[in-house]
Amino acid sequence: MIKWVKELPDTPIDTNIYKPFIKGDWFRKHYMWFAYTLMFLLVIPVCCLTTPMNDIRFPIRIAMILPVFLIHELLHILVAFRIGNIYLTHSGLYFWLHSDAEMSKGRFWIFMTLPFLVLSGIPLITRFFYSGALSPYILYVAWINAVMASSDIINSILILFKPRNAIFYRGYYKC
């Protein structure tokens, strides 16, 4: 079930078994600054350089953001909807999906990475083989999703550093 909430339900987590996903207090406290910095670094080249995406009219660019965002979130939901509830919250510019399901390392990595792979990776690969009229649009979809997925990219990298048999649950993991 999908639930839109302002705050996540308070669920007790046994910190003797579960460790925080992001261990360092400083990094955990400043995590969003890293995500916003990555977002900013992804935005700069398109704003400052001449790219094929500049040929797309501004209203069309704006109109493409919502479908890319919705598909991005639906890909997250596809991975987790059968194993637990999904909570939608937001923080600043970010919308967050939280699941109350325990996920293995592989499933959690797919949960975090699938939208980036499908909406940024596949369009970029496709662009190498296709250079027609839709090429700027394909590149724009890949770029706007990469900006949206900046937090997912950081999380995907952090997941790779966790032990192979790790189980993830609400910002914590256990081995």
From TrEMBL:
UniProt keyword terms in alphabetical order: Membrane, Transmembrane, Transmembrane helix
Pfam families: DUF3267 (PF11667)
Protein species of origin: Treponema bryantii
Annotated TM spans: 31-50, 62-88, 108-130, 137-161
Organism taxonomic ancestry: Bacteria, Pseudomonadati, Spirochaetota, Spirochaetia, Spirochaetales
Protein name according to UniProt: Putative zincin peptidase
InterPro entries: DUF3267
